[in-house]
Amino acid sequence: MSTELKSAAAVSHPNIAFIKYWGNRDHHLRIPASGSISMNLGRLETRTRVTFNPALTADRLILNGEPTSGKQLQRVQTFLDHVRRLAGIDLYAEVESKNDFPTGAGIASSASAFSALALAAAAAAGLQLSEAELSRLARRGSGSACRSVPGGFVEWLAGEDDQSSYAVSIAPADHWDLVDIVAVISQVHKPTGSTEGHALAETSPLQKARLKSAPARLEQCRTAILRRDFEALAEVSELDCNLMHAVMMTGARRLLYWQPATIELMHAAGEWRRSGIPVFYTIDAGPNVHLICPAAEADRVAAAAAQIQGIKEVLQAPAGSAAHLLAEEVNL
Ligand code: DP6
Question: Which end of the chain is more exposed for a tag (fewer CB within 10 A), N or C?
Answer without folding.
Answer: N
